[in-house]
Amino acid sequence: MPHLNRTASGVLGAIAGFVGLSAVAGVLVTATVTPAIAVSGYAAASAVDTFNNMPGFLEIDPLMLPTEIYRKDSAGNDMLMAQFYDQNRVPVTFDQVNPVMFDAIISSEDKNFYTHGGVDLGGTISALLGNASSGSNRGGSSITQQYVKNVLQQNCESKAANSDEVEACFTATTVNSGSEGYQRKLQEMRYAIQLEKRHSKDDILLGYLNITNFGGTVYGIGAAAEHYFSTTAANLTIAQAATIAGMVQAPNTYRIDEPGGTTQDDAGNPVNGEADGYKLTLDRRNYVLDRMLDLGKISQAEYDEAYASPITPQVTEQRQGCQTAVNAEFFCEYVRSVLLTDPAFGDDEDTRAANLRRGGMKIYTTLDPDLQQAGQEAIAVVPGSVDYMDLGASAVQVEAGTGRILSMVQNRPYSASGDVPGTTSVNYNVREKNGGGVGHPAGSTYKVFSLVNWLEQGHSVNETLNGRIGTKKVLVCDGQTQDVRLSNNGDGIGNFEASSGYNGTVYNFTRDSLNSGFMAMAEKISVCSTNQVAGKMGVTVGDGSALDATNNPYDVLGSKNVAPLDMAEAYASIAASGTLCQPKAIDKALNADGEDITPQTTCAPTLTPEVAATAAYTLQGVMTGTGSGARIGDGVPVFGKTGIHEYEHTWMDGASSKVATVVWVGNVEGHAELNNYYESGYSLARIRNSIWPAMQGAANAKFGGDDFPRPDSNLTKRVLTDLPSVIGMNVDQATQTLRAAGFSVSVGDAVDGLEGAGTVIQQDPGAGRVAGGTVVTIRPSNGEGVTVPAVSGKPADAVKALRDAGFGQVTTACTATETANDEGTVTGTDPAAGTVVNRNAAISVQYQAKKCGR
């Protein structure tokens, strides 16, 4: 197969072209005014001046290239996940193109390419005069001129913000008729002459083949070879090269990827499709082959073989968009949202959108293939569609200390439009601006912010509060309080599984996720400040608004809609000793020139190490309480927090020292109660216990995990509390008083007392400073007590006095003493005088006598 005959005229060709063009400039410029008359010498001279004053330097902007997003495969290699483009282009170098392709395009478009100076004068003049006299729309352009036109068009399109502006670019650079057509052609020629002074013929030819359109969104010979024939530009056959070369005259007519036809005949029948063997393209291809044979670029045998072959497309669709990111579509959409919003990728929204489709960026993401696969398998226990509710489920994992997103999965399959039944375009893991919804009520996983707030205000997790149901006077903001009723009778918020609560420590409240306990905490730390702590830890409402924009007492229990990714970063900050990192989906980003444009996410200390360590210690206790169903048992230390919001949403949030995992299952819309339904052997309210340990376990297996730092001693100390005296109160009053002070109460049996029945007359321990949460035993009076009177003198007189006082069981007890008299002398009673006893109690009179028993 012959190679190209590349004997360019070089500078001489350019000079000759320039001189000749100056002569014809008179024709061209005058034709814009009087195209059908002869040209005077004065007009021609003026035209030359006009031509010489036209801009000569053509700025060639970078090619519009697809942006490619990559992820790691299981072997750690980068693999293409998705791409976005306005123009599907695969740039090639000169050596990556089969020379037959150069022969085909030159033979059919510009046989004198290597000998003229940028403009084929004969062809140009003939075309222009023909246009002027007959209305023909012949181009007459050299390859260099066509390259100029394509450069001008792409320079314009690269700045277009919408399809109307793209169409305007096409019109401005391709108009052939009228004065505008002549002026455009003249400027095109001026650029072409100057272009050949600065660039080699080979560079211009390659530039043309890399930039030109080959139908639809296919641009450049690399993409055309791949798209139409599933091959490379280096491996094109003669017939394939001739077919592609023929397309440049009318790309959307001659394209061969539409079997149903690319156009219609006068009767409305489809033409140039599979049925007619792509007849229009075939005729054009054969024309190209004729030209190649005439110019000696191919032999007769090569011509015969190529001419006889049918057009047989082997189309490879270069799909774009996140639907190509199989099993990671929602993560891909999150990355796309970052590319469209982060200033690292452009100063404004339009620039970022253009860079995504035209900037040729290469984006390398954080997604971990093993954790993503484990997440896909784990989330599959939740069906993508059920007939009893709008069921959603999602999970996300982030690396503690970096914020890198390692996995992002959900139960419902992805579709870009979301119109396909059983699919969605909404990413349940992220905020609305990143393609999510408005978030989901966090339930008791939000209690972590009350815990952190409690610790930051210097309270110990071993401080004891009254965590029983009842009315709590909750601090809202600025000293304002609001009464909140906690009840299991349907007249207020209750505890999980109708627990009545208890007086206990914050540690135990967290372990048991006790609503009434956290409302008791809110009597000392305001809801407003708790919402502010959550905001400080990177969490907003799903729509991006601040959590403390409104403050409701029930926020403490997780009534706000939040995004799982926000919660994952918050829990990861506790695992990372208080360092909060912004979510990071991109490890590296390069522009088309290979320059690093990676967006810089920040990590900053948000909690003190002491608060983070004590929070982690407390949350580890959850894994022996409400989180026990999600235990992993692999020996890696983890902490967690469960959450259920009105049985409509269920969460499990937690972390090792390396990776945080957050799982949500619930109603996308609607209010179906999860505990009414079962899937995969789990109640939907508990199905988190299948998903979370599988995903966190996979993270533990790959990343390991260290022991969490020891909790701070000041934040875990036993707190002494003032124990009030309740003597004299009735039992109910005493019980309420003690519980309000943070103590548990045990009511003992009634004891004999002078006070009215039910009056507390004994308390153990007594009033004073004692450990919080101590059980206080109180005993009420039975109202039947009398005081033992003091007696003296003779024993018989004492016995009579006691009986006269109403005591029915009076006995005596003698002690022989030499110094006593014979009748005996009373020394006291048992019980002693002044003791309160029941009237039926036995009283013993104690006396001394010289001899007993007389």
Structure explained in plain terms:
This protein is an alpha+beta fold. 35% of the residues lie in helices and 19% in strands. The chain has a five-stranded antiparallel sheet. A hairpin with a 5-residue loop joins strand 8 and strand 9 (405-410). Helix 16 (369-379) packs antiparallel against helix 23. The protein is rod-shaped, with a radius of gyration of 45 Å. The model is unreliable at 1-20, 28-40 and 131-138 (pLDDT under 50).
Physical arrangement of strands within the biggest beta sheet: 9-8-21-20-19
Rg, alpha carbons: 45 Å
* Outline type: rod-shaped
Helix content: 25-40%
> Strand pairing plus helix content: what structural class?
alpha+beta
- Number of helical segments with 4 or more residues: 25
Largest sheet geometry: 5 strands, antiparallel
In terms of quaternary structure, the protein is single chain
* Total DSSP E strands: 33
What is the CA-CA span between the terminal residues?
151 Å
* Binned strand content: 15-25%
The unreliable regions are 1-20, 28-40, 131-138
Mean pLDDT: 89
Question: Brief description of this entry?
Answer:
35% of the residues lie in helices and 19% in strands. It contains 25 helices and 33 strands.
Short descriptors:
single chain, 854 residues, alpha+beta, five-stranded antiparallel sheet, four-stranded mixed sheet, 25 helices, 33 strands, rod-shaped, disordered N terminus
